[in-house]
């Protein structure tokens, strides 16, 4: 953001499989002095956290050092109460078991809050983005994987073990031999995430090399359109099921796949609407914070920690 930062800043740290972003964020969700660097995913937890800490130091320098806490969005199943990564895939080497809060709070000399990266981004959308007018929202990210955050009255609900929101791992039929990133079969992620769309396109004989190319082809190519429609329909039905279970005010959908446009959104909405039990009629809307959702949401957790708003 242009212009100088005000007072009452916190840090938002968004650790991803390929990049780590850090920004200072004010109480209105505005970001300052954003820094981004590649995540050293193959070098282990210590190297990953050191990159995050170095970026945090640079951001603090840029804003005059006036930050009161840091929040972290991290991949994996995260125990937010203990500040530890409980389990994780091999995306980040040696990530499972990492005590993020203990290590970063010592390194930064700041109070630190942590949660799963998708839940953190969802909290940002619920407080400052497309879900800000909803009392009860489910924020969904559809990209390389599929995840979600459940937020009620501005409070993130992580579940009893920190697993809540792993939408991509709910069972759906018909994924064939395609396995989910967790290694199991017949999961939503294996049918509707970006890599699943690309795999289906290859089986259909399409020469696309990225999911974005498949989406572009779907505007004119019937085979590509069928691939995209199938993935969007499976996801739309699953989201309708989420509504029938939780009855939220809004479903907010973001992530790289959700940027596809009408070729994806039309079948998604049609399948979603067809699954709803009357009188349920929640809003199904695109996310608005884009790539800033992660740092804004992580910073929101930090601000809650400082303000004593930590009901989990």
TrEMBL record:
Superkingdom of origin organism: Bacteria
Pfam family, one: ROK
InterPro entries cross-referenced by the UniProt entry: ATPase_NBD, ROK, ROK_cs
Family membership: Belongs to the ROK (NagC/XylR) family.
Protein name per its UniProtKB record: ROK family protein
Transmembrane segments: none
């Amino acid at each position: 953001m242009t212009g100088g930062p005000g007072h009452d800043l916190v840090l938002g740290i968004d650790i991803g499989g390929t990049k780590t972003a850090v920004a200072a964020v004010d109480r209105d969700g505005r970001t300052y002095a954003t820094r981004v660097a590649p995540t050293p995913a193959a070098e282990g937890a210590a190297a990953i956290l050191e990159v995050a800490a170095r970026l945090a130091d640079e951001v603090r320098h840029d804003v005059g050092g006036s930050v009161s806490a840091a929040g972290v969005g991290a991949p994996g199943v995260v125990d937010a109460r203990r500040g530890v990564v409980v389990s994780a895939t091999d995306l980040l080497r040696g990530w499972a078991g990492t005590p993020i809060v203990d290590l970063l709070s010592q390194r930064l000399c700041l109070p630190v809050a942590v949660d799963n990266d998708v839940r953190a981004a969802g909290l940002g959308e619920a407080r400052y983005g497309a879900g800000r007018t909803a009392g009860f929202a489910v924020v969904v990210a559809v990209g390389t994987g599929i995840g979600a955050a459940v937020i009620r009255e501005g409070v993130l609900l992580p579940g009893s073990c920190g697993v809540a929101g792993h939408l991509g791992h709910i069972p759906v039929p018909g994924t064939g031999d395609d396995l989910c990133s967790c290694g199991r079969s017949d999961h939503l992620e294996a049918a509707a995430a970006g890599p699943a769309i690309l795999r289906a396109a290859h089986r259909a004989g399409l020469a696309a090399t990225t999911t974005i190319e498949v989406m572009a082809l779907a505007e004119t190519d019937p085979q590509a359109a069928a691939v995209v429609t199938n993935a969007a329909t499976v996801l739309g039905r699953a989201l309708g099921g989420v509504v029938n279970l939780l009855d939220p005010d809004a479903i907010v959908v973001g992530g790289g796949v959700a940027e596809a446009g009408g070729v994806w959104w039309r079948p998604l909405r049609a399948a979603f609407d067809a699954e709803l039990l009357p009188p349920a009629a929640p809003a199904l809307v695109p996310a608005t914070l884009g790539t800033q959702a992660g740092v804004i949401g992580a910073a929101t957790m930090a601000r809650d920690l400082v303000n004593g708003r930590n009901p989990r």
